[in-house]
C-alpha cells in the first residue's frame, strides 16, 4: 500500500467553514486538507443566507445571546457551552474580518449592520452581501487557505476509512483520488490527529436545502471507528425552503421574516397568528405549523410584498435570484415554501476542545455534537459554532503530546472499501431519501420508525456499494435514535408521545445501534442508552 506524508501532520477532512477555519488556526503546524470536490463546491457553507450571530449591539450582551440559545435548544443545550460560544462570537467576527471577510456596514462604514432572526431577542446577525454571507465568508477563507504555506490542499480526494493504531487510536486516513475515478488503491496518509469537518446529512432526505452529497459520510467514518454519537434524532427542518420542484431546494432565509414577511396559506390566512412568536417562533414550531397546513391540503407562501416590495432585490439579492431562476417573481407574488431538512443538531459527541471519544479523532461543525444546539438550533449559530470550535480544536491539538514516529502498519477502522465518487442518485438512495422523509421527518411515530429501521437495516446488509451502505447506515442510526426518544422535544416530534420527558441526551455507538436494529427487526425492541 502506498504511504504518504509524515506522522506529525494533521489531517483535516472537509472544505466548508469548519474545515478551512480549523486548518488556518492550526498554523504553523503542517496540515493536509482533504476535500472531496474542488474547494468551494458541494459545501453547505455557501448556502448559509442568514449570517453569523454575535452580541455586538449596544443593547446586547453575550449572556442574552446564550439565553436565547438555551431557550431555542428546548432543554438540551449545555449552558456552559452556550455561554462560552456566545462570549467567543465577537472575536470570531474580528478573526473573519482579519481573514478578508467583508461584512455589511452602515453608510458611514463605522458599524456592522445587525439583522434580526427568529427566536433572537436582539438584532445580532452579521451579514455579508445581504443574504450571501456563507459564500462571502467561504470565498475569503478559501483565499486565506490557498495563501497559507503550512496547508497542503488535496482536492477531489475522498476518505475511505480512518486508520487505527494498535491501541485503537486514530492515526491517519485511507483515501483515494477521484481524479483517477476512485479506482486506485486507497493511499494511507498517517497523521498525529484527524479532524472531521464533513458537514451534515440533509442529502438523506427527499426534501433538503443541503447539497445532495451531504450524506453523513463523516458520521459513518466515526461510527466505524467506535466513536460515541449523540442526539442523532434531532434534524432541523428549515420552515421556508422554496417549493419550486428543485433538488436541493433553494432557501428563503429567515431574515425575510425578521424584516416582517408573513406566512399565509392558499386562502390567504396567516396561520401563525395565535402562536407565540408568530412568524418569528423557533424553527421547529414554524416548520410543524407549515407541515400541518400541507397535510391539510393547503399550499403555504411567504409574502414579502407588503414589507419589502421592490427593495427585496437590493436587500436580499440571493433569494431574489433563486426565485427568478425558478420562474418566481417575489416582487409581485408570494413565495411558495415548505419545510426541508436543513441542519443536523446531533453528531459525533465531542468535549470542550472538540475531541471525540476515540483518541486522535476530533470533529468540528455540523458533524459534531458539542452541546450548543440541543434539540433545536438557534438561527445563525451554526457558522458561529464552527468558527469557535475551530480555534479551540487547534489549541487542543497544539498542546497534545504525540509521538513523531509510529510503527506501521496501521489498520483501517473498517474493511477499506471503495465508496462511490458519483453524486448521481441511485435507485437505492432515492428510496432511502423517501423513507427518511416519510417516516423520520417533521412528524414521527413508532410504527413508521420501526418500518424505517427494518428497511434501512436490510439496505445496510444488502447494499450494492459501500457508499449506499453508509448512507443507509447513517439513516439507520438517526431512525434508531428517533425511535428511542419516546417524547416530543424541539425538532423531534412524536405523534404517539406528544409530551416531553425529563431532559436526557441519547447516546449510542455503532455496535449498540446495530444490536438494537436487529432486535427491532425481530419484533423485540430495546432502548438506546439514555444519559442525563
UniProtKB/TrEMBL annotation:
It is an enzyme of class 1 (oxidoreductase). Residues 474-510 form the Fumarate reductase/succinate dehydrogenase flavoprotein-like C-terminal domain. Residues 10-383 form the FAD-dependent oxidoreductase 2 FAD-binding domain. SUPFAM superfamilies: FAD/NAD(P)-binding domain (SSF51905), Succinate dehydrogenase/fumarate reductase flavoprotein C-terminal domain (SSF46977), Succinate dehydrogenase/fumarate reductase flavoprotein, catalytic domain (SSF56425). Pathway: Cofactor biosynthesis; NAD(+) biosynthesis; iminoaspartate from L-aspartate (oxidase route): step 1/1. GO terms for molecular function: L-aspartate oxidase activity. It comes from the Bacteria. This is L-aspartate oxidase. It comes from Microvirga tunisiensis. The lineage of its organism: Bacteria, Pseudomonadati, Pseudomonadota, Alphaproteobacteria, Hyphomicrobiales.
Amino acid at each position: 500500500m502506498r504511504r504518504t506524508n509524515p506522522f506529525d501532520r494533521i489531517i483535516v477532512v472537509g472544505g466548508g467553514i469548519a474545515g478551512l477555519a480549523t486548518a488556518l488556526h492550526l498554523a504553523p503546524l503542517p496540515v493536509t486538507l482533504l476535500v472531496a470536490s474542488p474547494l468551494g463546491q458541494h459545501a453547505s457553507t455557501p448556502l448559509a443566507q442568514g449570517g453569523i450571530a454575535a452580541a455586538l449591539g449596544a443593547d446586547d450582551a453575550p449572556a442574552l445571546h446564550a439565553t436565547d440559545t438555551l431557550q431555542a435548544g428546548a432543554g438540551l443545550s449545555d449552558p456552559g457551552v452556550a455561554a462560552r460560544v456566545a462570549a467567543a462570537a465577537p472575536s470570531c467576527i474580528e478573526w473573519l474580518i482579519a481573514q478578508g471577510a467583508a461584512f455589511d456596514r452602515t453608510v458611514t462604514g463605522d458599524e456592522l449592520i445587525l439583522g434580526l432572526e427568529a427566536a433572537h431577542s436582539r438584532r445580532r446577525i452579521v451579514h455579508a452581501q445581504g443574504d450571501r454571507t456563507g459564500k462571502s465568508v467561504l470565498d475569503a477563507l478559501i483565499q486565506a487557505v490557498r495563501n497559507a504555506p503550512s496547508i497542503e490542499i488535496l482536492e477531489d480526494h475522498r476518505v475511505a476509512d480512518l486508520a487505527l493504531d494498535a491501541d485503537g487510536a486514530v492515526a491517519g486516513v485511507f483515501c483515494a483520488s477521484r481524479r483517477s475515478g476512485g479506482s486506485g488503491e486507497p493511499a494511507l496518509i498517517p497523521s498525529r490527529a484527524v479532524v472531521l469537518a464533513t458537514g451534515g446529512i440533509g442529502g438523506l432526505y427527499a426534501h433538503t436545502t443541503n447539497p445532495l452529497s451531504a450524506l453523513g459520510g463523516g458520521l459513518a467514518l466515526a461510527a466505524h471507528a467506535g466513536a460515541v454519537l449523540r442526539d442523532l434524532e434531532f434534524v432541523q427542518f428549515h420552515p421556508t425552503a422554496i417549493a419550486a420542484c428543485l433538488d436541493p431546494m433553494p432557501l428563503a432565509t429567515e431574515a425575510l421574516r425578521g424584516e416582517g414577511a408573513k406566512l399565509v396559506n392558499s386562502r390567504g390566512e396567516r396561520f401563525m397568528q395565535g402562536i407565540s412568536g408568530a412568524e418569528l417562533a423557533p424553527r421547529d414550531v414554524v416548520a410543524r405549523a407549515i407541515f400541518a397546513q400541507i397535510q391539510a391540503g393547503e399550499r403555504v407562501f411567504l409574502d414579502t410584498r407588503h414589507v419589502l416590495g421592490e427593495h427585496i432585490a437590493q436587500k436580499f439579492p440571493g433569494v431574489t435570484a433563486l426565485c427568478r431562476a425558478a420562474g418566481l417573481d417575489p416582487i409581485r407574488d408570494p413565495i411558495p415554501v415548505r419545510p426541508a431538512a436543513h441542519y443536523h443538531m446531533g453528531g459525533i459527541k465531542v468535549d470542550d476542545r472538540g475531541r471525540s471519544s476515540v483518541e486522535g479523532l476530533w470533529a468540528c461543525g455540523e458533524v459534531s455534537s458539542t452541546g450548543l444546539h440541543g434539540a433545536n438550533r438557534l438561527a445563525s449559530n451554526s457558522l458561529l459554532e464552527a468558527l469557535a470550535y475551530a480555534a479551540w480544536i487547534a489549541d487542543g491539538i497544539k498542546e497534545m503530546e504525540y509521538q513523531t514516529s509510529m510503527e506501521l502498519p496501521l489498520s483501517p477502522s473498517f474493511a477499506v472499501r471503495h465508496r462511490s465518487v458519483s453524486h448521481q442518485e441511485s435507485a437505492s438512495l432515492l428510496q432511502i431519501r423517501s423513507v427518511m422523509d416519510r417516516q423520520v421527518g417533521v412528524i414521527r411515530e413508532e410504527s413508521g420508525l420501526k418500518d424505517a429501521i427494518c428497511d434501512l437495516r436490510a439496505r445496510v446488509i444488502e447494499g450494492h456499494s459501500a457508499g449506499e451502505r453508509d448512507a443507509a447506515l447513517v439513516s439507520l442510526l438517526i431512525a434508531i435514535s428517533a425511535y428511542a426518544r419516546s417524547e416530543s422535544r424541539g425538532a423531534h416530534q412524536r405523534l404517539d408521545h406528544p409530551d416531553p420527558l425529563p431532559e436526557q441526551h441519547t447516546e449510542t455507538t455503532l455496535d449498540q445501534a446495530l444490536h438494537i436494529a436487529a432486535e427491532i427487526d425481530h419484533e423485540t425492541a430495546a432502548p438506546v442508552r439514555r444519559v442525563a
